[in-house]
Amino acid sequence: MSEEILINVTAMETRVALIENGQLQEIFIERHSHRGHVGDIFYGKVIRVMPGMEAAFVDIGLEKAAFIHASDIAEIDADGFETRDEGPKPIQQLLREGQFIVVQVAKDAIGTKGARLTTNLTLPSRNLVYLPRSKHLGISQRIAGDAERQRLLDQIGHCLEQESWDGHGGFIVRTAAEGACAEEFCEDVRYLRRLWRKVKQRIERTNKISTVYGEAPLYMRITRDLITTRVERIRVDNEQSLGEIQQ
Predict the structure, then answer these.
(1) The whole model's pTM is what?
(2) Pick from 15, 16, 117, 226: most CB atoms within 10 A?
(3) Sheet order of strands, 3-9 included
(4) Comparing C-alpha atoms, which of 12, 120, 108, 1 is closest to residue 64?
(5) pLDDT digits over 87-107, tens only?
(6) CA neighbours closer than 13 Å in the CB half-sphere of residue 87
């Protein structure tokens, strides 16, 4: 089985096609004027707390104020990890108007509703999702077979030991990691460690509403998520995009 990825980047939109044995299997389109913000991390400001709804509105610099529910807010302990109680605390105990908060977009704005936010931050790589404020280590539910799930846990465990991981942050093994080895996990861990360091620096240096992490454009996400040993060729018609992919 041979695969080919075609990437077309224009001023208006990006289109990506996955070809398998000469047949179109999937197509992805991202319009630059309507690009979503799911996965983006913001340093936002609470502008209104609503006890009746157990929620708050947060200004993250978008056209509409974003929305966060009490159940999507995790308190952080002295070591920087999320704490979990049996149920969420009342919203007025978690947030106050004028407070700055680090949030990630979980759902894009729809119609008159603003984006849905969470404080449970995640950063993806090809094989892993990094949870910088958690100690959780898990496997995607889409990976079937107890033997493979245990093998992947052993491989990520070996990788973290090899990398002298300090335990600050957890990981979820993505579906794309099926069949992966410890070295592949180690490459992702090194990348995610560098990425979180940069994001953390941006958070610490800012004192105003701003974006501290933006999810990669479509052609970079495709490079991260779809390339396997079956892909024989990638065709890109934009020089700048090609340079970013090569880098």
Answers:
(1) 0.84
(2) 117
(3) 23-31, 13-20, 3-9, 231-236
(4) 108
(5) 778 999 999 999 999 999 999
(6) 3
